[in-house]
Amino acid sequence: MTRKQEQKRQERRGDEPAADRTGRVCVVTGASGGLGLATCRALARRGARVVLAVRDPEKGRRAAESIAGGTPGARLEVRPLDLADLTSVRAFADTLRADHGHIDVLVNNAGIMAPPYATSPQGHELQFATNHLGHFALTGLLLDLLAAGTDPRVVTVSSPNHRQGRLDLDNPEAVDGPDGYSPMGHYNRSKLANAVFGHQLHLRLTAAGSNVRSVLAHPGYTATGLQHGTPVRGVRFLYGRLLKPLAQSPEAGARSQLYAATEPGVTGGEFIGPGGAGELRGAPTRVRLAPRATDANTGRRLWELSERLTEVRYPLPAPAASRAS
Asked: What Cα–Cα distance (Å) separates residue 156 from each residue in 27, 138, 246, 251, 318?
């Protein structure tokens, strides 16, 4: 059986992509549960050294113990990271740099969905801060370590909801307080920001001639604590009850980001998601980005805004289309 035939057989069965990660260093955010834990478990089984970046170190330690129980000899590190707090992001990057001379894969997986209105320590709306700004800063701070890696990739996890998102870059927070805050509207906005960032990062890495690939992924609808933890009743009813029969397991949902992180044929700029009806479930395949996610002016403006808000500057030139707009 050829490698391609074996992969097709695995996809029909719902298995993970089979690429070997032996000896590689992989960093996964939001690693203590759900998609992040499933991603770490799969990478550890393939021989990678996995850094579990977690907000709660105790939960992270329990997650690492569960991985080690099924994969004796797994090489795991648990490191604290609160993506909502840019001070924590910088501390994480500094300590990681002290112990590692390179990173091969960064999976920007962590996220929050439809919480009550709150702001980050730096004063930004919490979903935008956690889902986008934290990952933007983290990727920029680790970019040189990624460039020193082998087949290095940044995988940013978005959502089909990015297609419903709107970014008002003249009013980037899009809310001045609890009044007017839309839990799902702001979640969709943060997922659009993820998509714009992943695409714009691809363009800038390409313009710089970098060996790092930026790839986007989404898990479809997966049964994790993300939807069930929201206090918004409508969201809990829709995802926790109405759509529950369609939900994949975290292991199945993680296949898209694993494919993006490990499959040899993946190229920068691609968006990987489930191939089934409505992209809710199924084997990983290439799916479409919303046109607004690839708009050159939106990409340039969000990038400049993100550099200003995080104070993280990337050593990458703007793509020609962005400079001209």
From this structure: 12, 11, 24, 18, 19
Closest C-alpha among 150, 16, 44, 128 to residue 83: 128
Question: Does 2 score more than 70 pLDDT?
Answer: no
Phi then psi dihedrals of residue 181, to 5 deg: -75, 130
Query: Identity (one letter) of the amino acid at 137?
Result: A
CA distances from 8 to 159, 215, 275, 283, 301 (A): 25, 21, 13, 9, 41
pLDDT over threshold 90, residue 224 = no
Please tell me the distance from the alpha carbon of residue 108 to that of residue 93, in angstroms, as a whole number. Answer: 14
**Pairing label, strands 153-157, 213-217:** parallel
The set of catalytic residues is 187
Give pLDDT, residue 247: 75
How does residue 12 score in pLDDT terms, banded at 50, 70 and 90? very low
Closest CA to 33 of 73, 66, 1, 80: 66
Share of the chain above pLDDT 90, in %: 76
- Report the distance separating Cα 303 and Cα 261, nearest Å: 23
119's CB contacts (< 8 A; 6+ apart) are: 125, 126, 129
> What stretch of H or E contains 49?
strand 49-54
**How many angstroms separate the CA atoms of 217 and 154, rounded?**
10
The mean pLDDT of 296-301, rounded to a whole number, is 96
Q: How far is CA 209 from CA 143, 158, 315, in A?
A: 14, 25, 12
| Over residues 64-90, mean pLDDT | 98
What average pLDDT does this structure show over 82-103? 98
> Tokens 């609890």 appear where?
178
**Encoding tokens for residue 291?**
């046109």
CA–CA dist 297, 239 (Å, integer)? 34
SS3 call for 112: coil
